[in-house]
Amino acid sequence: MPFDEASNFNVGDGRPSLLPFRGIYVMQGIFKEETLMELEHFDVLHDDVFIISYPKSGTNWMQVLMRLVYAEGDHKCLEGVASWEKTPWLELQKSKVLQLSRPRIITSHFPHRLAPHALQEGSAKVIYVARNPKDIIVSLYHFCKNALFMEMPKDFQSFLEVFIDGKVLMGSWFEHIQGWMECKHPQLLYVMYEDMTKDLPAVVRRMCTFLGKTLTEVQIESVVKHSSFTAMKNNPMTNFSKAEKLFEDNIKFFRKGKVGDWKNHFTVAQSEWFDAVYQERTVGLGLDFTWDLPEQPAS
Question: Which residue ranges does the record assign to the Sulfotransferase domain (predicted)?
Answer without folding.
Answer: 47-282
